[in-house]
Amino acid sequence: MQQYVTRRLIQAVFTVFGVMLITFILFRIIAGDVSAAYVNQKLGAAARQAFYQKHKLDRPALINYHRRIVLEDRTQGRHLFAVTDRHGSRLAANLDLHLSPSGLNEKQAPSATVKIVTALIWRLSAQTPLPQATGTNAGDTAPESAAPPPSLLISTGSGHEFSVPVTPLSDVAALLSAINAHPANQGQVAAYISEWSPANLFDSQFFWHIYEAATFTGRSYATDQTLLDVILERGKFSLAINLPALALGWLLAMVISSLVAYYRDTWVDRIGVLLSVLGMCIPYLAYMLLGQWVLFKIAPEVAVGLSHPVSIYMPVLISVVAGLGGSVRFYRTIILDEISRDYVRTARAKGVPLPAILFVHVLKNCMLPILTNLISTIPFIFMGSLLLERFFGIPGLGDLMLTSITSRDVPIITGLVYLTSVLYVGSLIVTDILYAVFDPRIRLQ
Q1: Same-domain check for residues 178 and 296
Q2: CB under 8 Å to 180, separation ≥6 — which residues?
Q3: In this structure, are residues 214 and 231 in contact, taking their beta carbons and an 8 Å threshold?
């Protein structure tokens, strides 16, 4: 059994990894940039860059074989360290020069305090060509021939400024040399290429995406709460509805399906099957609308939200009734196959009471498919019901998932998808183990 469980756990890891890869492609690559929904565009590129840095969106997508050009201010002054384009230069904009976030894996100098870095560039080296250094936007007038040449204005922390012409620069080595060897620099600003090591390979959006989901440390774009805090805050409301709904629904389904199967081809069986099919034909939304209408008629103050403990009664009842029809039909089919066995006829002939026949002998022998159906619902106990929680104003995880999808709160979406996938593959492994417990003929190899 140990080897079987180990093999299934390895398979589960790859399954969850595949789920995370799909969610990354859907919500990080195909969905595009989400900063417009959470960053005030009037604050400019600096606010957007800070958002990228905070949520690790400034990293490469899949693997990090990238480096940066680093400008390091060694003056430790009180003025703002900045690099700006002057006189038609576009090099700073095209390189995306910005203040370095903390924690970058770059070589440090003892006196380094402030750095300006470029965006991560694939396989950056001294021979890498520079992007377009000059140019005009649509509607701009071309600079006059007598105007100063396009240049980068570097302002150090000490208040000192010097300009580096960009027109003769062709590659990264020329840019670094022009800054470091500038007569006005005098060692105040050091320009170099950041170092790369194998540890940087996984410093990418995808692996941060997996790490933050697996450790529940991803932060919501909207509220800045960690995923763990969100689950602890909202998960109890989902459990308060789905746990009693599952227990009550399973108990009723087992009793009803056992009775209709025992009295097959009688009026009890026909009425039970008719009601089950009728219950399956009614949409889940109709149950919710009817439940809300009834609550607003008899007790409008508890119809929405959790202002009163009885507010969860109707959602629990709806969840039980909506799933009862399908469960009764499923369990009836399983029990019918078992109830026609010889040992059941022998028990009847010996006068064994009906409850003992159904709930001691029959259910024990048809427990395997029942376990599969029951345990596969475990993830939904924690994750809740999206529409049910939204309709009744219950702040559970299902409502959070729906809200996160509409607002594109990617860390919460991916975290909840990860939690669901882990619970689901874990429940399947538990089901396989219980197979061997309830049926000694089964061996896990």
Answers
A1: no
A2: 189, 190, 191
A3: no
Cα 277 to chain centroid distance, Å, stands at 36
Tokens matching residue 49: 């860059």
Query: Are the C-beta atoms of 23 and 417 separated by less than 8 Å?
Result: yes
> Beta strand pairing status for 82-86 and 69-73?
unpaired
pLDDT at position 142? 44
> Are 179 and 239 found together in one domain?
no
Q: Are residues 264 and 324 in the same domain?
A: yes
- Closest alpha carbon to 396 in 411, 407, 382, 408: 382
Tell me whether residue 2 is in a domain: no
User: Which of helix, strand or coil describes residue 53?
Assistant: helix
Of 202, 206, 196, 204, whose CA–CA distance to 60 is shortest? 204
SS3 355: helix
237-277 pLDDT tens trace:
888 888 999 999 999 998 898 888 888 888 988 998 899 99
> What range does the domain containing 81 cover?
65-200
How many Cβ atoms are within 10 Å of 287's Cβ, its own excluded? 20
User: Do 118 and 95 touch, CB atoms closer than 8 A?
Assistant: yes
Dihedral pair phi/psi, residue 71, rounded to 5°: -115, 120
- Cβ atoms 203, 59 nearer than 8 A: yes
The pLDDT tens digits for 371-418 are 888 888 888 787 767 888 888 888 888 889 988 988 889 999 999 999
Identify whether 74 is part of a domain: yes
pTM above 0.85, yes or no: no
In the beta sheet, which residues pair with residue 155? 82, 161
Length, in residues, of the chain: 445
Looking at residue 79, the DSSP 8-state letter turns out to be S
Between CA 226 and CA 232 the distance in angstroms is 10
Distance of CA 177 to the CA centre of its chain: 45
